Amino acid sequence: MPFSLWMSLAAVCAMGAMSPGPSLALVLRHTLGGGRLPGVMAALAHALGVGLYALLTVWGLGALIVGFPTLFQVITWAGAAYLAWLGIKALRAGRAGALHPDAMATSGCQAARDGMLVALGNPKLILFFVALLSQFVTPDMSLAARAIIVLTAMIIDGGWYVLVAVSLSHSRVLPWLQARAHWINRATGLLLLLLALRVVAGPIV
User: Fold this and answer.
1) If both were cysteines, with which of 18, 111, 180, 184 could 42 make a disulfide (CB 3.0 to 4.6 Å apart)?
2) Please, are residues 44 and 122 in contact by the beta-carbon 8 Å criterion?
3) What gap in Å lies between CA 47 and CA 166, rounded to an integer?
4) Which segments does the entry list as coiled coil (predicted)?
5) What span, in angstroms and rounded, lies between the C-alpha atoms of 90 and 15?
6) Residue 66, Cβ neighbours under 10 Å: how many?
7) CA distances from 175 to 19, 171, 181, 205 (A)
8) Are 195 and 12 contacting, i.e. CB atoms less than 8 angstroms apart?
9) What is the pLDDT of residue 152?
10) pLDDT tens figures, 73-118
């Protein structure tokens, strides 16, 4: 995979990981409820779930492109619509949302379980991956290229949420984020809308 194409992949994976939603709220809750270790455990378990979805998506997309090009296009447009919906939701979130989680007592095992379940139990995640990976998957893609896509999605997701957990371990960070939540949500929403437009425009070449 060319480096420039990988950079595009990494950028859209980062936007997906950083978008506000249940995954971010989960990591925040476990970090605030149990400290750094539960937050990191939730982040790593979530990344494993994301990696599994990415693996299934990469292998399934190649066959879908070959056998059902029209169906593949419909699913891709549905994924783009979902990305746009996420973007609009983020723009409308204002100061509310995932940056104000309810505190709760938690442990590392509970955090790992919840992290995996949130990833695997979120049907919208597969739509996101179809919209995302459709830009990079081809029927004749090599095994190494597929592995790069899966690892990139998993490492970026895990890295982002580990960073969130570690950062929030410092008590002065969360108030700073809360004070700027509206700007974070606006920036994320705009990026997601641009990504939806990129998906509708066609594959990245």
Assistant:
1) 111
2) no
3) 16
4) none
5) 12
6) 12
7) 19, 8, 10, 42
8) yes
9) 93
10) 776 677 678 768 767 876 776 555 555 555 455 677 888 888 888 7
* Distance, CA of 52 to CA of 120 (rounded, Å): 8
Q: At 67, list the tokens.
A: 């056998």
Neighbours of 107 (CB within 10 A): 14
User: Token match 């599994």: residue?
Assistant: 52
Distance separating alpha carbons of residues 37 and 79, to the nearest angstrom: 34
Lookup: tokens for 109:
């095992």
Determine how many CB atoms are found less than 10 A away from the CB of residue 196.
22
Is residue 36 a contact partner of residue 166, using CB atoms and an 8 Å limit?
Answer: yes
Closest CA to 50 of 165, 124, 154, 123: 154
State if pTM tops 0.85: no
Alpha-carbon distance of 105 to 112, in angstroms, equals 14
Which of these, 131, 160, 124, lies nearest to 18 by C-alpha position? 160
